[in-house]
Amino acid sequence: MSLQTIAGKFVELCNQGRNFDVMETMYAPTIVSVEGGGEETAGQQPVIQKSRVWGANNDVHGEKVRGPFFNGRNQFAVHFTFDITRKATGQRVTIEEVGVYTVNDDKITREQFFYDGEH
């Protein structure tokens, strides 16, 4: 499968709110996820669990994913905009981040997030 096909499917599913379908079907078992502060999570199930915890702590009202944007033969980036309410504070905020994804053997093997300000 081409990088363009994988990245296009990624964006399509995320824009449908099917982020966990992406993680369950497109992530490699050995994926490494790197947050903007440098924290790393390794392995498909731990990465999915990290996202479940984030989802449990936030009410997501909307998500928009722009891209993909390509770099070389095996990387793409997307721009995320989330409209969320933080359950701990009740504060509704918009957060933006860029995710850079590395693809090997038709699976996403690394994701790294970049963001400005509080995440």
What features would you highlight for this structure?
119 residues, alpha+beta, six-stranded mixed beta sheet, 3 helices, globular
Describe the structure in your own words.
A six-stranded mixed beta sheet has the order 2-1-6-5-4-3. The chain is 29% helix and 50% strand. It is built from three helices and six strands. With 119 residues, it is α+β, with helices and mostly antiparallel strands. The mean pLDDT is 95.
Low-confidence stretches: none
The largest sheet, given as strand count, sense and whether it forms a barrel, is: 6 strands, mixed
**H/E element string?**
HHEEHEEEE
**Cα distance, first to last residue?**
33 Å
Give me the Rg, rounded: 14 Å
- Class by SSE composition: alpha+beta
| Beta-strand share of residues | over 45%
Number of strands: 6
